């Protein structure tokens, strides 16, 4: 899932435990994705689930 370059972007800052950061960094690298792309995908999935409830 990629955002189009022309889309306006906002920055989101979230504090997570060190082990969570390390785990997402490793997993996203294994998948060849940036952490930002993974997090955006998870947020979009969360939003879509909310629309179904």
Brief sketch in words of this structure:
By secondary structure, this protein is mostly helical. 58% of the residues lie in helices and 0% in strands. It has a domain at 18-52.
Structure description:
This protein has 53 residues and is mostly helical. It has a domain at 18-52. It contains two helices and no strands. It has helices spanning 18-30, 35-52. The two termini are 23 Å apart.
What is the count of helical runs?
Answer: 2
| Unreliable sequence segments | none
- State the total count of DSSP E strands: 0
Radius of gyration from CA coordinates: 13 Å
**How does the major sheet shape up?**
none
Instruction: Provide the residue-averaged pLDDT.
Output: 90
Q: What is the N-to-C order of secondary-structure elements (H for helix, E for strand)?
A: HH
Specify the structural class.
mainly alpha
The geometry reads as globular
Instruction: Quote the beta fraction.
Output: under 5%
What is the end-to-end distance?
23 Å
The helical percent reads 55-70%
Topology of this structure?
Blueprint: H1 18-30, H2 35-52
List key phrases describing it.
53 residues; mainly alpha; 2 helices; 58% helix
């Amino acid at each position: 899932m990629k955002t189009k370059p022309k889309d306006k972007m906002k920055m989101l800052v979230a504090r997570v435990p060190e082990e969570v950061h390390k785990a997402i960094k490793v997993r996203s690298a294994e998948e060849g994705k940036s952490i930002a792309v993974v997090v955006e995908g998870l947020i979009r999935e969360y939003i879509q689930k909310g629309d179904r409830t």
